[in-house]
Task: structure prediction
Amino acid sequence: KNAGAPTITSASTATAYLRSAFVFSVGVTPAVTSYGMSGLPPGLTNSGGTITGTPTATGTYNVFVTASNSLGSDSQTLVLTVLDPVLTLSTNSLIGLSSILGKEGSIRTYTISGTNLTNSVTVTAPTYFAISDDSVTFVNTLTVVPLGGALSAKTLYVRLATNAPLGANSGAVTHSGGGALGQNLAVGGAVIQPQLMLSTSSLGGFSTRVGVVSSSQSYTVSGTELTGGITLTAPAGFEISTDDSNFTDNLLFLPSGGALSAQRVYVRISVSNVAGSLSGSILHEGGDAASQSLSLSGLIVQPSLSTSVGSLISFNADAGSVSSVQSFALSGSHLTGPIT
Result:
């Protein structure tokens, strides 16, 4: 080989990726006046010893490279491999997510995998959804970093965000980057608002006497979108029932499919040894609904009799005659029948 003839010094192998710009410069010493190349992959061109472009077909290509000047030439086969970065999701949709308005919702999972990736992958949740890589901290955007171009099945978590509005919500979790074609995961779910409804907000006018239960009054309780049972707790001095016969201080209603049809509840003053006014509220809670209260008021009385004088004395009469008349007044309150 003549002194001063070119020598190719660059690597004999290189890797390019579909959809990614590629640059490879042939290293030569000393100065070169011309380069020749053949066998380039589709999408790549040679300009002055520099290969540029974006490859459009995968495969392994043997590129024959020559470098020449007035004193001679050198050649080399460049083995150029074109790879296709690929992102893969374990499913293309996650539906059936649910949450209660303003609260964290149910969680669904999927996995993301990848091969021949050129850099990190960005995962972005749609509006009103949140994602996580640890099932604890949920955010709008995550970055997943491959190792050596590979991403083994990475579990990601999806749920409705706490700011999701009432009703149906849907969108797509996007996955982009790494040189791969973007992948979308369709997501959908519903935000509900459990509700408890009472047919009235108060019951008043209960009345009884010491030692006797009062007559009952009734109302109904119903609900929608409930997630569990509804507990009713009566205040002190009152008791409740579902059949107007067996009374207790608490009741439990279980919804069916989230719905609680109108349940009739009977209320009365329980037996008391103390007279006076009575008030309180029946508390209704559970099923993730806002608690509801029904106010109660009534009166317990003590029947009483009184006379205007404590005694009548000094009755006098002659033999065979009636005495003079003395009198007193009799009065009573809260009486339940005739006085004898």
About this structure: DSSP finds no helices and 29 strands in the chain.
